[in-house]
Amino acid sequence: MMRVGVVTFPGTLDDQDAARAVRLAGAEAVPLWHADHDLKGVDAVFLPGGFSYGDYLRCGAISRFAPLMEELIPAAKAGLPVLGTCNGFQILCEAHLLPGALTRNAGLHYLCRDQGIRVENTATAWTGEFAEGQEIVLPIKHGEGRYVADEATLAELEGTGRVVFRYSGGNPNGSLNDIAGISNEAGNVVGLMPHPEHAVEELTGAPSVDGRGFFTSILKRLVTA
């Protein structure tokens, strides 16, 4: 059975949802605590959402220096699949595993609703079960989700196909180029503001279970690797 690590920082909110999503896909969810110095031999890692360390300084700024991150950063650079959602995306940017930053929403309001997302890249470790151009619906819940980067970084992301998801049906937070999620150059590290872990069950995932595709994608990638 494939093993997916689910990281918990002080202030993480969505680790139990993430673990359940992993189990529903058929993998073992392995708890990883922020103070651990060992990734426990997992095959992939999920950084879920929340308010790690209370979002002090900046979202993800303190989490980036957690002992576990000292293990995760080199592992990700060596090819370990990593998915970060919401606060997890912010942490990946702070850790420089992904470029750019997440800032206050353009309207300065906290957003909590279902959001249309367009899949732009199906070649990553986490998107292989989707179709390019596919429209999916995932929940968003954030106050600091506006993706920003300098012009050169944006041009590189666009030119190399590393914009993995865009908002559709309206840009909720003012993210540049409607960017909802991106990947690193190798495609093993993906970050996005929406929450696939909250859209995996009929009972709680209404109006969609589109989040399942993230977890079936990574398991298929690991099995066929």
From TrEMBL:
Signal sequence annotation: none
Major localisation: cytoplasm
Active site (catalytic residues): C86 (nucleophile), H195, E197
EC assignment: 6.3.5.3, 3.5.1.2
Domain of life: Bacteria
SMART domains: GATase_5 (SM01211)
MF terms in GO: ATP binding; glutaminase activity; phosphoribosylformylglycinamidine synthase activity
Recorded catalytic activity of this chain's protein: L-glutamine + H2O = L-glutamate + NH4(+); N(2)-formyl-N(1)-(5-phospho-beta-D-ribosyl)glycinamide + L-glutamine + ATP + H2O = 2-formamido-N(1)-(5-O-phospho-beta-D-ribosyl)acetamidine + L-glutamate + ADP + phosphate + H(+)
Protein name: Phosphoribosylformylglycinamidine synthase subunit PurQ
Organism this protein belongs to: Acrocarpospora phusangensis
Encoding gene per record: purQ
